């Protein structure tokens, strides 16, 4: 099946349309997937209502309302919190197979694409009684088509579903495959949680400007434009970030004064510890919520 017909025949069911589900739905719609290709199950009444209003898509309240059309290339995006995952997966289990009286057998096995932090493939497969599972770790810039998603699949996922998972993630930005499942925890720590570190940096840069006497609007403009300009410069440059940093740092100047303080406070070490904590938490959540 070529990519165009694979995409056109895809039906994507989101279980959970909260922060990340919403970002992916929005990004996928903007990239050309059609409204009719989506189903969403969202238990929260307010979130449910808002999804219907904003996107005009079909949003169900409960999992028992799902009925897969097995003539489609079904993708089920598991976008609930890790602590809700096992219950959802166990409820979904019976739905993933056509009923014995069904006249349609799946063209390809439904793909279960989990974006949940920590939840491991072995646990998903046990709960779902279904092999065709892929782990993905996207991030919220998917909302504007600038996400980056780390993906892991093992050999039990066939070529079509491998390609489908990648196509969906590419539609909302970029996708990278990692070679070991364990590395999805690292992806989570770096880029899944990463936007929050960047937003915290932006908050701090703006607040520092205000403390130096700039009004809030000006401080915000300076901080946001600096982050945008610097990251685009780094992105488009052949040089590593360390060289770009040196070019800003005049000998005995202002940048050197600021970077000296960050060095004394072991800024890099602190950030490494923070990202290590996220990686550890991802593993711990896998153990905590993977039981049962
Ligand atoms: N937020 C992010 O930046 C990222 C999140 N992720 C992962 O994505 C997943 C979702 O995170 P996030 O979007 O932030 O979480 P949210 O809580 O915003 O969204 C999850 C939604 O699922 C709903 N829900 C709970 N149980 C069910 C059910 N049985 N059926 C249907 N819907 C249900 C929740 O309702 P209620 O609130 O009422 O429980 C909630 O609205 C997590 O596993 C997280 O690890 C991955 C990458 C980035
Ligand atoms: O904070 C979390 O657990 C989720 C996973 C990555 C981003 N948000």
UniProtKB/TrEMBL annotation:
Biological processes, Gene Ontology terms: L-proline biosynthetic process
GO MF annotation terms: pyrroline-5-carboxylate reductase activity
Catalytic activity: L-proline + NAD(+) = (S)-1-pyrroline-5-carboxylate + NADH + 2 H(+); L-proline + NADP(+) = (S)-1-pyrroline-5-carboxylate + NADPH + 2 H(+)
EC number: 1.5.1.2
Cell compartment(s), UniProt: Cytoplasm
GO CC entries: cytoplasm
One of the Pfam families matching this protein, by short name: P5CR_dimer
Residues involved in NADP(+) binding: 15-20, 79-82
Domain Pyrroline-5-carboxylate reductase catalytic N-terminal residue range list: 12-96
The keyword Amino-acid biosynthesis is assigned to this record: yes
Predominant subcellular localization, coarse grouping: cytoplasm
Pathway as given in its UniProt record: Amino-acid biosynthesis; L-proline biosynthesis; L-proline from L-glutamate 5-semialdehyde: step 1/1
Keywords: Amino-acid biosynthesis, Cytoplasm, NADP, Oxidoreductase, Proline biosynthesis
Domain Pyrroline-5-carboxylate reductase dimerisation: start-end pairs: 181-285
HAMAP family: P5C_reductase
Family: Belongs to the pyrroline-5-carboxylate reductase family.
PANTHER family tied to this protein: PYRROLINE-5-CARBOXYLATE REDUCTASE (PTHR11645), PYRROLINE-5-CARBOXYLATE REDUCTASE 3 (PTHR11645:SF0)
Role noted for this protein: Catalyzes the reduction of 1-pyrroline-5-carboxylate (PCA) to L-proline.
Entry protein name: Pyrroline-5-carboxylate reductase
Originating organism: Polynucleobacter brandtiae
